[in-house]
Design a protein that fits this description.
413 residues, mainly alpha, two-stranded antiparallel sheet, disordered N terminus
Amino acid sequence: MQFTENAFARPGREGGGSLRVLAVAGFCLAVLLTGCGGGGGSSSVGNAGEGETLSSVAGLGRKIFNDASLSASGLQSCASCHESAHGHAAPNDLAAQFGGPNMDLQGGRLSPGIGYLAANTPFFFDAEGTPTGGFFWDGRARSLQDQAGQPFLNPVEMANTSKAEVIARLAATDYAGEFRLVFGDTVFSDVDGAYERMTLALQRYQLEAPEFNAFTSKYDYFLLGKASLGVQEMRGLALFNNPAKGNCLACHPSARGADGSMPMFTDFTYDSLGLPRNHELGQNSDPNYFDLGLCARDTGDLLERKDLCGLFKVPTLRNVALRHAYFHNGKFKTLKDAVTFYVQRDTHPEKYYPRNADGTVNKFDDLPAEYHRNVNTTEVPYDRKPGDAPALSDDEVDDVVAFLKTLTDGYEP
């Protein structure tokens, strides 16, 4: 299941569908403790949470992350679209956030949650050709550092016209002296170098601050034997893992790793779900526009891979209950509606798609017809047709939702 910014079929497998591989496990968790370069040892940071100690580089990253003065409008920071109280996703149910110099330009996709990305990797194809890793919905960024640097220059986000403009704003902040202290007195004289250090600080903050990788959900404590799940939550877990029912574990593994690591609830792959078109997105007012995801990312490296058109990154389900909109286009606004779509997309397509002039359902209307073959239609729960019973009943959907709520951080056993 893909709830915000993939399943079993491999490229070229008859029936199209999704591309899946188990997550590359065991990404060195020592990265959370060791430096990434640029100087700076550990120190208590004034803005850190209670009892929290960050390195000096990560402490700067926290300030940068929350600083709206670094945007052209002076009103938008990284935290504006990635609030911790909402699973480091958007604080509202908009399909895409507004930004730009006057905060009146709409983005094209839902702001993804940016928690639990420490174990992610740069984009790659595995030995079976499965696309895996990368940051953003289309995997175009290679790292948290790369991802962090792009919104500052995006014309519909923080909307700076150049790196030089960003660094000029940074040099005017009340923590510019701290930035010089950590990175050197002349750091602002080299725009590219200063920009690299700014984004490094943002990466360090996301790697070091426990809020991004807390592992404090009820389910975590359940796995550690320190909490018990309720009856409904246990039913939901069983349905989540049952390959004949929810089959959610196909893309969102729920078991601890062989090394004892907690599950990430994503395999970091990509899937095409055939989502309904969302007319809340201004870009969709053009009937000839389609967001093709992986094959059309602006790096241009996958333009020839037509089998990847319509695929988007599988996000983690951790803190999914804190979000207010789901999938890359923000089409669904509640967790129950999102789960129900999974199991009724094929059994009751008329609920989700418009009708053609002849009365037939225009299924997968947010993709050109030539890419419908890429949509996952072979795996449970997508292997149904009108008239079949959904893989989950309405009560069972409620059970799965109850389980998903146990993935919210901040539980006290």
